[in-house]
Amino acid sequence: MAEGPTPSRADPAAALPRVELLAELPDITVTRHVCRAGPRDRPFPEQHRQASLAVVLAGSFCYRCRDRTHALVAGSVMLGEVDEAFVCSHEHGVGDVCLCVNLRPSLLEAAASTSAAPGRLFAAPALAPRPRISALARALAGAADSRDEARAPEVEALALALTAEVFGELALQTGSRRAPQPRPSASDRGRAVAGAQYIAARASEPLLLKDVADHVGLSPFHFLRLFRAVFGVTPHQYLVQTRVERAAARLCESEVPVTELAFEVGFGDLSNFVRTFHRLVGLSPGRWRRQHHNRKIRQV
């Protein structure tokens, strides 16, 4: 964040934000944009080079797009379509930090298909703050900022969940209607089961949703919706649950150190494993082992 008003700049490019690459997956890129412009910086016309979905993490600015000026603060969402013109200004404060999610065009269009926006990808250029969107953005920023390749599935799942939430909120705020979702057919259920089996067989690997969707011949967003409709959980939630279940069994059956076991079942770091295990099981891995491993020995 900036520390005070900045002097007027003759070169408009000097007011452009600093872009930090946080994560780069096959179909998804996550970046952080840090801007230090202030009231004394003259705004200038810009153009979105690609479809933009950005959540404000800190600071504030004004975003003029489609002949209307939107005041954005922490939690607000800035949206822009390819080649769409806009102007950003900071007349009410200095600096801002935004988390930007860029999806492959076909993936973004698949996400947009869940809400009606005739003739446009985004039905509105900005969204008011919403707690769930803000929480997902901050969780995504934390996972991506770790630069841990083992967390790539988590980054992907959070990015897709954030995108879906934004389009859902767009439908609510603009009054557009989502198309009714038909009940899964027998063929759909078969694909969902095949996807679950694929996840279970490779649960210890850094598995991406794209890999599973490709395996069953669906787009990631279509598979995500189908899997949740059939099983009531997302593919990533199922992946995490599978890892935790296997870890719980291994803790009862072996003396493998918890740190080694965390990596064995597919977690990228010990703290994430301990936190997730406790959330799903209700006990820490060490306490689970002490209770159930000892009980098994007494039974024998």
From TrEMBL:
Entries under Pfam families matching the protein: AraC_binding (PF02311), HTH_18 (PF12833)
Gene3D superfamilies: Homeodomain-like
UniProtKB keywords: DNA-binding, Transcription, Transcription regulation
Domain HTH araC/xylS-type: 193-291
Protein name per the record: AraC family transcriptional regulator
Organism in which the protein naturally occurs: Nannocystis punicea
Classification lineage: Bacteria, Pseudomonadati, Myxococcota, Polyangia, Nannocystales
